[in-house]
Input
Amino acid sequence: MPASPAGQLRSIAIGVTDLDAAERFYTGTWNLESVARTGDAVYLRGSGSFHHILSLHRGDKPDVRNVTFSVASAEDLDAIAARTQANGGKLVAGPQPVEEPGGGTAVTIADPQGRVLRFVHGDERLDAAADDSRRRDAPERITHVVFNSSDVAVAQRFFEQALGFCLSDRTKIMAFMRCNSDHHSIALADSDADTLNHIAFVMPDLDAVMRGAGRMSDAGWPIEWGVGRHGPGNNVFSYFIGPDDFVIEYTADVLQVDDSYKTGGPSDWTWPAGRFDQWGVSKPPSDRIKQAQKKIRFIE
Output
């Protein structure tokens, strides 16, 4: 596929109401690792090379501060800044140095529905985890973030025209968008509000998803949907509700695609009555997760 200037999804910054408790959860149970700290924030890495994939920020209420992509060149930052303004988005800041752990130079934008997106070049990379026991049982990176959208057509057009995303699949309720070989890095869900739906952390394989699900259950965090295998993206999934009601997913086996991939429509992604995944073993999403998937807003 033609290269998108967006590069690769790197991290998400979220506001949490109890920073210490959130850090304990995401390190002790979700199995990330603290790599840096400031007075009001903690930066957490996965087992891959990104400096951090999740940052936790002390706040009065849960929210999303930004979603960050790592781009290949400084020229990509300039292209994103220009194309954002030409396609209905807002240039918030940059290009300018990033004044937080991980560094680099960033352009920060808001899309037409107010989601804050940041694109960073020259950010720090770390050695991938050398501990085999940790690497086999920890998230490597964030593979996708799903946004609820009050107008998916508007959001889709912006991601395509301003950021170079391609549509991989469209179901009755969701548009799956890619900017590299991952089947989707962003998905846009039909909704009545522009909120966060969930954050997906990719694990090394199915066994790692199952071990992670067992660890969560042991710690008192039940599976809210799954374990199963999705249609679009073909990925294995297990969903949970974390601190402050953020919906988080362990996933694996994300489909890798190129320009030969045939874009699917709603008729390509239907299940028999009563089925919620390819395998037919997953129960439906819990009522609790359906509510949590609607409530987390981006900062204004």
Observations:
- The two ends are 34 Å apart (CA to CA).
- The chain has six helices and 17 strands.
